[in-house]
Design brief:
The complex is a heterodimer of chains A (about 280) and B (about 350). Chain A has about 280 residues and is an all-alpha fold. Helices cover about 75% and strands about 0% of the residues of chain A. In chain A, a hairpin with a 2-residue loop joins strand 1 and strand 2. The model of chain A has no long low-confidence stretch (mean pLDDT about 85). With about 350 residues, chain B is an alpha/beta fold. The chains are: A mainly alpha (about 280), B alpha/beta (about 350). Chains A and B meet through helix 1, helix 5 and helix 13 of A and helix 3, strand 5 and helix 4 of B.
Chain lengths: ~280, ~350
């Protein structure tokens, strides 16, 4: 008896898998809405955290009128922008943090490997963190407020650029944490790296030019968090040269995304050869 | 008939790192880890025909799970090859997984927080099961497993038995050609076990699925499988019919006789002296008359009728019972002694 080998075009396969991912998401949303209280508590906690961060910015700028030439409103805009890719990423990142425990130690990765769907897509979509939606919402609000204060002229092109830059920046977040996650294929030491790295994100919300050269290079090329907020946001609030740099964000996303996929795949291959 | 599954010289090595004792040992471990190789599966070969239900048995750590993981494509072998219907599981995994169903008794394949029906809907999408077929399948599953009553409960609220019924249905929804069952009755009560076995029989008949079953509960094997493969220390110890294993020369049947009057064992044994029969020890000495006597014999040497005739010639019989060797004993013997059975009687 022969079993058919499924040979579909990449495009068909992508369409099928996207459909599945959306179905996962719809399921999860439905489930979460059943717990309305949780949802409201999440929203409250998020509002509070973001409020505290905004207040910090406010206090800072009440003492100094500008940071290396960056006005309060510009910094506020960058901060608002930073919440959008972070929100997108947080939406799907929850299983990356508990990957070592849930998927490797508890053996859930075996189940994932037994289904004809991309393993990474399954891991990312088996749980969603709805607080990501709050960040998207609040980030948009802060950005619109700052843009109004700055009297930015926002045209259709800007919106289009925003729609490219935000997902690109989210891919950069995901790439960094995917690489951190993939380490658990080699080391049992669980995710000890993630929290300190997560903290670095805070630095990336301020204009890069306030830091020394070393930190700038580090944030651009090593832990590329410069590209998740400041660099892309300069399309809107930077000068002409910075604006051009902003457009490199998708390229950085592709580079780091590719690198992360390589590490992830190597990890999966190792899992397939060593088991759990 | 061409086999559906061909396993050839399959071998899997694990590299383990041993930890040294103490703090100092831990530091040495950092610099020079102690590596050790463990051969979990050792040169295993077998074939399985379409529609067969084969029991794959072995003690903990015998290499069962490792074999199953290679057969399902989760693990890549160190050497050797697996082919299932022409596909190589670990190389063509995404194609291959559409043709198989897997149930792990220890953990569910369903989404913990989703209602059962939502899990099925997701699986329908993943395996692209047409709506009409989906409905037919669900009707079939409900008839046999009665899953309708908890279809709208989240998986985490189900009892173990209910969960297993759902897992079985989920594994078969896309009509796989091969079903892998790893301890499907573990932790279930007697009734639930019976339900699972009944369902598996039906599923095999009606869906024609080929089943590989690993279990600790040898009753599962007795009731479901004609053929078994026994693995120990990574090697195949036995591959053949369960019946043959049981009828093998070293595996003795037990014939217990309840006589009408007490008879001394020595006297009864004298009556059967010409037969290749061993007598199980009776309580009391040889000379004390007792009612019950048990004879152990091998099918290849004599049979119950001959023994009965010899006994009846001298004594009156009230009742009798003939017991097959327990499959547990047979398997235990294979672990202990390999396939060549020792001549001594089963106790």
């Amino acid at each position: 008896m022969q079993l058919a080998e499924y040979r579909t075009s990449r495009w068909q396969d992508l369409r099928r898998q996207t459909g599945i991912v959306l179905a996962y998401f719809a399921q999860f949303l439905k489930m979460r809405l059943a717990y309305r209280v949780d949802f409201l508590v999440d929203l409250g906690a998020n509002l509070f955290a973001i409020g505290v961060q905004l207040a910090t910015l406010g206090v800072l700028f009440s003492k100094v009128p500008a940071l290396k030439g960056w006005s309060f409103e510009s910094v506020l805009f960058i901060y608002g922008f930073s919440l959008l890719p972070l929100g997108l990423f947080n939406l799907i990142s929850i299983n990356l943090y508990r990957f070592a425990e849930r998927y490797i130690a508890e053996g859930n990765l075996d189940r994932v490997l037994l289904r004809p769907v991309n393993p990474l897509a399954q891991v990312l979509c088996e749980s969603f963190n709805m607080s990501g939606l709050n960040e998207l919402l609040l980030g948009t609000g802060v950005m619109i407020y700052a843009a109004n204060q700055l009297e930015l002229a926002v045209g259709p092109l800007d919106i289009l650029v925003l729609l490219v830059l935000v997902p690109s920046a989210a891919v950069i977040y995901a790439s960094v944490f995917l690489m951190v996650t993939a380490v658990s294929f080699w080391h049992e030491d669980r995710m000890g790296l993630a929290p300190p790295i997560y903290n670095v994100i805070r630095f990336a919300r301020y204009p890069l030019t306030i830091y020394g050269k070393g930190v700038q290079i580090f944030l651009m090329f090593v832990l590329p968090f410069a590209w998740v907020a400041y660099m892309p946001a300069t399309w809107f609030v930077g000068d002409a040269e910075q604006t051009r740099w902003a457009l490199l964000t998708p390229l950085v996303a592709v580079l780091f995304g590719g690198l992360a996929m390589m590490v992830w795949r190597a990890g999966l291959r190792r899992y397939e050869s060593t088991g759990n | 008939m061409a086999p559906l599954i061909t396993v050839q010289r399959l071998t899997k090595d694990y590299h383990l790192t041993d930890r040294r004792e103490g703090v100092l040992g831990g530091m040495v471990d950092l610099v020079r880890p102690q590596k050790r190789m463990l051969r979990a599966v050792d040169d295993v070969s077998f074939t399985i025909d379409p529609g067969e239900m084969v029991g794959y048995i072995g003690a903990n750590g015998a290499g069962k799970s490792t074999t199953i993981k290679m057969l399902t494509g989760i693990l890549t072998p160190t050497s050797g090859e697996v082919r299932v219907g022409g596909l190589v599981p670990y190389r063509q995994r995404q194609s291959y997984t559409r043709h198989i169903g897997v149930v792990f008794g220890q953990r569910t394949q369903l989404w913990w927080d989703l209602a059962v029906v939502e899990s099925f809907r997701l699986l329908q999408r993943i395996y692209e099961v047409p709506e009409a077929r989906y409905r037919e399948q669900m009707t079939f599953f409900n008839e046999l497993l009665g899953i309708d009553e908890f279809l709208h409960q989240p998986v985490r609220k189900l009892s173990l038995g209910q969960r297993m019924r759902c897992d079985l249905a989920a594994a078969l929804l896309h009509e796989p050609r091969v079903l892998f069952l790893d301890e499907p009755t573990i932790g279930l009560d007697v009734v639930a076990k019976e339900n699972v076995r009944g369902f598996l029989r039906q599923a095999r008949e009606q869906l024609g699925v080929t089943v590989i079953l690993t279990t600790h509960d040898l009753t599962d094997i007795e009731q479901l499988c004609r053929r078994i493969i026994i693995i120990d220390h990574g090697k195949v110890m036995y591959n053949g019919l369960l019946e043959d294993l049981r009828r093998g020369p070293g595996h003795k049947l037990r014939l217990c006789l309840d006589l009408a009057e007490p008879v001394a064992p020595a006297e009864l044994q004298a009556a059967c002296a010409h037969l290749p029969v061993e007598w199980a020890e009776t309580e009391g000495a040889d000379r004390t008359p007792v009612l019950r006597h048990c004879a152990l014999f091998s099918r290849s040497e004599t049979n119950a009728a001959t023994i009965l005739a010899a006994v009846l010639a001298a004594h009156r019989l009230r009742d009798m019972a003939l017991t097959e060797p327990a499959i547990e004993d047979v398997v235990r013997r294979i672990y202990r002694e390999g396939l060549v059975p020792a001549p001594e009687a089963l106790g």
